[in-house]
Design goal:
Blueprint lengths: L5 H5 L15 H9 L9 H9 L1 H14 L5 E4 L6 E4 L16 E7 L4 H13 L2 E3 L2 E3 L3 E5 L5 H12 L5 E4 L3 H11 L5 E5 L4 H11 L3 E4 L3 H13 L5 E4 L6 H19 L11 E2 L11 H17 L4 E4 L4 H14 L12 E5 L8 E5 L2 H13 L4 E6 L6 H6 L5 H11 L9 E4 L7 H8 L2 E4 L7 H8 L5
Parallel strand pairs: 3-6, 3-12, 6-7, 7-8, 8-9, 9-10, 11-12, 14-15, 14-16, 16-17
Antiparallel strand pairs: 1-2, 4-5, 13-15
């Protein structure tokens, strides 16, 4: 996005504050365009006027141009499960944020029998892990043509499409790809891959079926040349694969090519390579070694490029030791650093507590909250959990920064009316907040017990300290 100030966007708007966009003022709307929570086309008067007046149309097109992301955004799939890949603005997360999490596709191949295809697809569809208040899931399928049989590839593509997730279709044979597209083009799959040897056929496929296309080449000049050719033919939805090599100098070379592509796109403004980048951790399965070693390197490669510009990835392993660390890393990298991950302040009931059960205190930083909640549940402890609004900051930092104070503790006690729910007046605070013990007692009139630093040790602490000795 070339603009940095809402005022720059505002100057392109009608400035009538009509509220048709859903915001009170044009300036507010401009701010939301800048942080990408609103789209230019939401300005209905501007769109209507552009249909009648060539000068307004030119203004609209210019506004779209200057507010478009630095890296093109490509949509794979349809409906509410469609994936946006690319669409990034910066090289480093701390400069702004990363917007569209790396899309994970897991392979299914057409030489598997139907039963195994079904089993594999179900594993992908049903995978779900709870982490920091959200369920982490797998995004889609990569359907590989191993048989080189157009009919079989078409059958498998249709079967996999029935599971409703976005797809990458992988076939270097244009005949096989066309057969599959005849069946599933309406699902908007990404077709993979146009190469130096088949780009003409794949360009025609992308145009005929109006689907996004991946271009694969190790030579970045060749990659760019094919991308320019596709763009000039009217293909906008392009993904670049600079070839993922799994080990040693090959992996180093892959890393360097990816860095070059993204730096050239963002720092040099080269729109001919400003497209999402596809990484193939699945290439780890080409190395020598046992399955554990291959899966290990698959996770390593994925981790490298989740951090550095991998917009989409193709995996083979669906095992927990590959999937969980990569999902967790993706979640953390694509968390907006401008907005701490937080939960609502208030009172939580853990395991149906009664009036004699303890009252615990924590902050509303999501990672802290869910860790404490999980530890209490795992230990089967009944209790009341007071969650203080520290603006999404953890215990130690919020104490040091004045976000967790005795007055805030008093406020949450009064707001939640916890005193009406328990017979005692004991409050258990985190060990990292021990310095607040006296001030909380003075402010609230409650007796404060200092709990462990690590909530994982709360069970042992409870055995020694609850109920408190009078």
């Amino acid at each position: 996005m070339k603009v940095k100030s809402p005022l720059e966007v505002y100057n392109f708007l009608p400035r009538t504050n009509c509220k048709e966009c859903g915001y009170d003022t044009c300036m507010s709307f401009a701010s939301h365009i800048l942080d990408r929570s609103a789209k230019v086309y939401d300005c209905k008067p501007l769109v209507r006027d552009a249909e009648k007046d060539p000068k307004v149309k030119e203004k609209l097109e210019k506004l779209i141009e200057i507010t478009s992301p630095e890296i093109a955004e490509v949509i794979v799939g349809i409906g509410d499960k469609a994936l946006k890949i690319g669409g990034e603005e910066v090289l480093h997360r701390h400069e702004l944020t990363f917007f569209n999490p790396t899309a994970f596709f897991f392979d299914v191949w057409d030489t598997l029998d139907d039963k195994k295809i079904e089993e594999r697809c179900k594993r992908v569809v049903e995978y779900k892990k709870f982490y920091v208040g959200k369920f982490l899931t797998l995004d889609g399928f990569a359907v590989r043509c191993i048989s080189n049989d157009p009919k079989r590839f078409r059958e498998v593509a249709k079967k996999v499409a029935s599971y409703g997730k976005p797809m990458v279709l992988i076939a270097l044979n244009p005949e096989c790809m066309r057969a599959a597209l005849e069946e599933v083009a309406n699902q908007r799959p990404l077709i993979y891959a146009a190469t130096e040897g088949n780009w003409k056929e794949f360009m025609k496929l992308a145009l005929d079926y109006k689907v996004p296309v991946a271009i694969r080449a190790k030579d970045l000049n060749v990659l760019k040349s094919i991308a320019v050719t596709f763009k000039s033919a009217g293909i906008k939805d392009i993904v670049l694969d600079p070839v993922t090599e799994p080990l040693g100098e090959g992996l180093q070379g892959t890393f360097e090519r990816v860095i070059q592509l993204r730096r050239k796109a963002i720092l040099d403004g080269d729109k001919d390579v400003a497209y999402p980048i596809l990484i193939t951790p699945i290439s780890a399965w080409l190395i020598e070694g046992d399955e554990v070693t291959k899966a290990y390197w698959e996770a390593v490669i994925a981790g490298m490029f989740i951090v550095k510009y991998g917009d989409a990835m193709i995996f083979h392993s669906i095992d927990q030791h590959v999937v969980m660390p990569t999902l967790t890393l993706r979640f953390n990298i694509y968390t907006d650093p401008r907005t701490p991950v937080q939960v609502a302040a208030g009172l939580r009931e853990i395991n149906n507590p009664g009036p004699d059960d303890p009252v615990f205190l924590t902050t509303n930083f999501a990672l802290t909250y869910y860790t404490v909640e999980n530890d209490l549940n795992s230990a089967k402890i009944k209790g009341w959990l007071l969650v203080v609004n520290t603006e999404g900051i953890g215990v130690e930092a919020s104490v040091a920064g004045g976000k967790l104070t005795a007055s805030k503790v008093k406020e949450i006690i009064e707001q939640t009316k916890i005193a009406e729910k328990v017979k005692h007046r004991y409050l258990v605070i985190p060990g990292l907040a021990a310095r607040l013990q006296g001030s909380i007692e003075d402010e609230t009139g409650w007796k404060v017990l200092v709990g462990p630093i690590d909530s994982g040790r709360i069970k042992g602490w409870m055995e020694k300290n609850w109920p408190p000795k009078k």
